[in-house]
Amino acid sequence: MHHNEFFNENYKKERNYFGFKPNKEIIKLIKYKKSGTVLDLGVGEGKNALFLAKNGFDVTGIDISQEGINNFLKSAKDINVKVKALVGDINKIKFDKTYDVIISNSTLHFLKKEEIKRIIKNMKEYTKQGGINLITVFTIKNSSENFPYLFKKNELKEFYKDWEILE
Questions:
Q1: CB-side exposure of 123: number of CA atoms within 13 Å?
Q2: Which of 55, 114, 138, 153 is 20 to 30 Å from 144 by CA-CA measure?
Q3: Is the dihedral of CA 95, 82, 49, 88 positive or negative?
Q4: pLDDT (tens digit, 9 = 90+) per residue, 8-25?
């Protein structure tokens, strides 16, 4: 089963498959940035994006799962926030503007190393001066599953050695 099918199935069965609570990293993010534009790559049903939208950010979410995007938009409506949403493969998106914050939460380990390199390069390139990239991934150490790519310790840091690492 392809990941897209897996997510579509689960999002169909149960809205908010991964719950409503944003990741702790996302909650911490608002210590560093109070507002601005956010691009969430692999938004899923949008628990992180919705939290940021609720806190005044201008949020765009992209996900390969139509069901995920449908639920994201429904939830945004429920809590009365405006968000933009696109169904699309993060491997194929063309960045057309810069953002204050670009998020990739538990998404990159579904891809191949070459794809990851390209996406991170784009994330860095399309982040405004003083902006933030927030990435969470599974590593060799903390994954019980076999994802297409597992990061080695400090590998992500290497990609950002020319940036200030906040956490």
A1: 27
A2: 114
A3: negative
A4: 565 566 555 455 688 899
